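Blinded run. Sample ID left blank on purpose so nobody reads anything into the name before looking at the predicted structure. Input follows.
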Amino acid sequence: MRKPIIAGNWKMNKTSLEAIAIAEELKRDLVDVGGVDIVVCPPFTALQSVSEALTDMNIAVGAQNVHWVDNGAFTGEISASMLKDFGARYVIVGHSERRQYFGETNETVNKRLRAALAHGLTPIVCVGENLAEREAGKTFDVIKNHCEGSLAGLSGDEAGRIVIAYEPVWAIGTGRTATPQQAQEAHAFIRQLLEKLFSADVAGDVRIQYGGSVTPENIASLIAQPDIDGALVGGASLKAQPFATIVKAALSSK
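Blinded prediction complete.
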C-alpha cells in the first residue's frame, strides 16, 4: 500500500523568522503523527533554518526548484548539492508557475529531476492542464505530454523514486477544485501511463499527489480516491493549523 504524502509549497512567502515560527507550530501539532510522509517546502532563504528547526522530526524539508548543473556560472540558480547541504530531502520540479512565468519546459524538468535523483533528492514532478486546455478537451493530451517529456529516458528504478503531482492549473490559488471524480480520472490516467512507460510495478509504487486549492474541507474526499496518494498544498500550508488538519485528515482517510 502506498504511503500518503502531504507536501506544503510555501512559494515566495515567509521570512526566515516567520518560517521558523510555522515549523515550531507544526512540530507541536504533528509530533505524534505517523503513517504519512510530511514535507514542507519553504523558499531558499529559509531552507536551512527550517531544516534545523525540524531536526529529528517526522517532517521533511523540500526545495521549490533545482538547477541541473552542480556548480558554475549560473547566476541566481541553486544546485542539488547546495540543497542537500541545507537539509533538503525533496524538491519540486516543473511547477506550473515555473512553466508559466520562467520558461520551464519538459526538457528542463527532465534535467532538473535527473540532477535531483543523482544527489539522492526525491523530485516532486508537476504535471497538469490549464483552463483553456481542459475546456478544449485536451486534459489527457497535456498530461501525457508532460509525463512523457519530463520522464524521458528514466529507468524503471529511477521512475520508482519520484513523486508526481497532478495540478490542474485552473484550480491553483483560484478556490476552484477539481471534483474528486475529475481528480481520480486524471490520477488513474497517469498511473496507466506509468505502466505503459515503465511497468505495472512502477505504476503501482509511484505516489501521485493532487495539487489545486487543497483545503481541510476537501482533502478527505480527494484522498479517499484509489489513485490519489496525497496532496501538494499551496495557500493552506502557509498557516500551521490548516496544514496540520490536512495531514491528519489524509491519514484518517486512507
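Unblinding after everyone has recorded impressions. The longest strand covers residues 122-127.
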